Amino acid sequence: MIKRLSALRRGGHTRRFHTERFIGEETVGQHSFGVACIITLIEDKPSAELLMAALFHDIAEQDTGDIPAPVKWAHPDLKILLQSIEDLFHHRHDQQLSPNLSAREHVALKWADSLDLLCTAIEQVELGNRNMCKVVMRIVAFLHNYEPHFKGLELLKKLEEYYVNSEQR
Asked: 73: pLDDT confidence band, cut at 50, 70 and 90?
């Protein structure tokens, strides 16, 4: 139990955005909390497994670091290698940190993960980090082309409106 607790806590301290100019710092723990919060907004009655997945979806990044999605998109072989490293991490922890989700729950998790990234990018822009405008645009485009999630799409539209209005101030 101590080994598992140590892995959970260590995973939460992993830094995100190490390849971007970023004001302050965000950890996997902060991001995972945000993802879990968004799950509660876009899912009427989220299962315990889905909330657990929200909390632990990036836990293996303590072994790999936070590799930016565009790097994985540009290098499919790297994405496969990273997945194998993450699988080994979960195997070492008896798969307990990788709950089984339905296809619908996988979609909800991806939406929540992406929406939390969008929220973080918008916050960075509000702080004056114009570098994150490209992240905002990239994640909005990704979600508009991803498998639809009704409440996720509603929240995306509200965040887009908020972003446009805040840019006009």
From this structure: confident
Instruction: Find residue 15's DSSP bridge partners.
Output: 27
Residue 24: Cβ within 10 Å count: 9
**Distance, CA of 72 to CA of 69 (rounded, Å):** 5
Neighbours of 132 (CB within 10 A): 22
- The number of domains in the chain is 1
Are 61 and 28 a contacting pair, CB within 8 Å?
Answer: yes
Residues spanned by the domain of 78: 2-167
Q: How far is CA 141 from CA 34, 101, 116, 146, in A?
A: 21, 25, 15, 9
pLDDT in tens, 111-132: 999 999 999 999 999 999 999 9
**Predicted confidence (pLDDT) per residue in 48-67, tens digit:** 999 999 999 999 898 888 89
- For residue 104, which of 150, 58, 138 has the smallest C-alpha distance? 150
